[in-house]
Amino acid sequence: MDCKRIPIPGSKVRIHELLFGVKKFLNIEDCSSLILIGDFNVDLALHNEPLELLIALIKQLNLKIDTNNIPTRGEAILHFEIVSTNLPI
Predict the structure, then answer these.
(1) How many separate domains does the chain show?
(2) By residue range, what is the domain housing residue 41?
(3) pTM to 2 decimals?
(4) Could you tell me if residue 34 is inside a domain?
(5) pLDDT at 84 (0 to 100)
């Protein structure tokens, strides 16, 4: 049995994997219409380490979070997209 560590959704490891995977396959600096939509498992209403990491990494990649700030489950804001800063929304 392989005991390899499986990162949990919303963890710092998964956030790194996602954004650096995108950077590996796309030239984000030249991509003016990038939209990442998915289940990131990061609550925008909680100011915690995963959110701070997500914000720091997307800034490095010239991206931003776009949201309507409407809670999606209780007080949690889980529905958002990550978009190019050049993309007019």
Answers:
(1) 1
(2) 12-84
(3) 0.74
(4) yes
(5) 86
Is there a domain that residue 4 lies in?
A: no
Whether 80 is covered by a domain: the verdict is yes
57 pLDDT above the threshold of 50: yes
Give the CA distances from residue 72 to residues 30, 52, 79, 85, in Å, rounded to whole numbers and listed in that order.
Answer: 33, 20, 7, 24
Q: What is the dihedral of CA 35, 36, 38, 39, to 10 degrees?
A: -130
The amino acid occupying position 74 is: G
- Spatial separation of the C-alpha atoms in residues 38 and 81, rounded to whole Å: 7
- Token pair of 78, please? 């889980």
Query: Reduced to 3 states, what is the DSSP secondary structure of residue 17?
Result: helix
Residue 47, CA atoms < 13 Å, CB-side half-sphere: 0
